[in-house]
From TrEMBL:
Belongs to the NAGSA dehydrogenase family. Type 1 subfamily. GO terms for cellular component: cytoplasm. It is found in: Cytoplasm. Pathway: Amino-acid biosynthesis; L-arginine biosynthesis; N(2)-acetyl-L-ornithine from L-glutamate: step 3/4. This is N-acetyl-gamma-glutamyl-phosphate reductase. One of its GO terms (molecular function) is NADP+ binding. Catalyzes the NADPH-dependent reduction of N-acetyl-5-glutamyl phosphate to yield N-acetyl-L-glutamate 5-semialdehyde. GO terms for biological process: L-arginine biosynthetic process. The keyword Ligase does not apply. Its EC number is 1.2.1.38. Residues 4-136 form the Semialdehyde dehydrogenase NAD-binding domain. SUPFAM superfamilies: Glyceraldehyde-3-phosphate dehydrogenase-like, C-terminal domain, NAD(P)-binding Rossmann-fold domains. It catalyses: N-acetyl-L-glutamate 5-semialdehyde + phosphate + NADP(+) = N-acetyl-L-glutamyl 5-phosphate + NADPH + H(+).
Length: 342
């Protein structure tokens, strides 16, 4: 079975990564590629690494161009997917890499994104309890944010097993591709190179409510999250350090056992051997999340460290993984756990 898929926002970073993965997908034929200001140019002008598609001309983004496909991947800025999706029949699988349909709580949406809540779609993080079943046969999928993927998968097992109190601190460094390719002053090489800078501090980053949503669901009770993102001079990658106060009596061996059990069957969660800590470089281009956990008995905290490629497991890889589940394909088709080194 060959499925015809379209990518809207093909000139952007997430669109380019989707196409890199889809070119290696055994069940996919790549149909329409669309953009906005760059419509009319060739894909090769934006993504010279995507050689087989280099001559393809980008179309305007419209429902008329996207309609004749089995699945449509939307890699558009926030606020643009609901309108397009509403014009596509429910028979087409629509996978939204943006944030528009991730949050369940309309008040959280209005506070962090503004405007009316566009609605909630099945959430594309199969490793969370219950999520995989919601994705099988889904026709609309919300791909998670990159930071929430790292933080949620890092701490969900500990919260689900009540190893920690529901008070979570996340400090995560990210490469600059997380911000997309549009020009921003704080992303100039002269600002980024040789420096690390915190931003969105004090509960203001829009990924905070997504982490709260995921971790509260895992815990089965409300969880608070203090999130501090840090921009660092690398192209791809997120390294998230996630901590929470350990419950009395929790031992390092119990922590290890809970994480081993939680992720033993997960194809894309790589729990590292004890004593080895995640590095972003090992995840680049792969759909794997590398994870390690430890207990700090003096400070009384559990520490989980997760690394992933923000464009792969953090966006396009999660999108393809969810697409596979929705269409009844092998969950791992077109995806790899093999990174690039050195
Ligand atoms: N980068 C990342 O690590 C992650 C990104 N995402 C999400 O993926 C989506 C895309 O992000 P990213 O690729 O980084 O962004 P980019 O800025 O790199 O790309 C944006 C894409 O959307 C197109 N576009 C811009 N404005 C419009 C519009 N008004 N109508 C239609 N298309 C438009 C652009 O076309 P043109 O080039 O012609 O202007 C381009 O193809 C976002 O919602 C983002 O939040 C999610 C997780 C991680
Ligand atoms: C480094 C950097 O700027 N990262 C972005 C991550 C955004 C992202 O990728 O997620 P969404 O899909 O929710 O937009 C940020 O902090 O806004």
């Amino acid at each position: 079975m060959t499925l015809r898929v379209a990518v809207a926002g093909a000139s952007g970073y997430a669109g380019g990564e989707l196409l890199r993965l889809l070119l290696g997908h055994p069940d996919v034929e790549i149909g329409a590629l669309t953009a906005n200001s760059n419509a009319g140019s060739t894909l090769g002008e934006h993504h010279p690494h995507l050689v087989p598609l280099a001559e393809r001309v980008l179309s305007e983004t419209s429902a008329a161009v996207l309609v004749d496909h089995d699945a449509v991947f939307l890699a558009l800025p926030h606020g643009h997917s609901a309108e397009i999706a509403a014009q596509l029949p429910s028979s087409i699988v629509v996978i939204d890499c943006g944030a528009d349909h991730r949050l369940v709580n309309p008040a959280a949406w209005e506070r962090f994104y503004g405007g009316a809540h566009p609605g909630t779609w099945p959430y594309g993080m199969p490793e969370l309890p219950g999520a995989r079943d919601n994705l099988r046969g889904a026709r609309r999928i919300a791909v998670p944010g990159c930071y929430p993927t790292a933080a949620s998968l890092a701490l969900a097992p500990a919260l689900a097993a009540a190893l920690v109190e529901p008070a979570v601190t996340v400090v995560a460094v990210s490469g600059t591709s997380g911000a997309g390719k549009s020009l921003k002053t704080n992303l100039l090489a002269s600002e980024v190179l040789g420096s690390a800078s915190a931003y969105g501090v004090g509960g203001t980053h829009r990924h905070t409510p997504e982490m709260v949503q995921n971790l509260s669901a895992a815990a089965g009770k409300p969880v608070t999250v203090s999130f501090t993102p840090v921009l660092v001079p690398m192209s791809r990658g997120i390294l998230a350090t996630v901590t929470a106060p350990a419950m009395p009596g929790v031992s390092a061996s119990l922590v290890r056992q809970i994480y081993d059990n939680a992720y033993a069957a997960e194809p894309f969660i790589h729990l590292l051997p004890a004593g080895q800590w995640p590095v972003t470089k090992a995840t680049l281009g792969s759909n794997a999340l590398h994870l390690q956990v430890a207990l700090d008995p003096d400070a009384g905290v559990l520490i989980a460290v997760a690394a992933l490629d923000n464009l792969t497991k953090g966006t396009a890889g999660a999108a393809v993984q969810s697409f596979n589940l929705a269409l009844g394909l092998s969950e791992t088709a077109g995806l790899t756990t093999v990174g690039i080194a050195p």
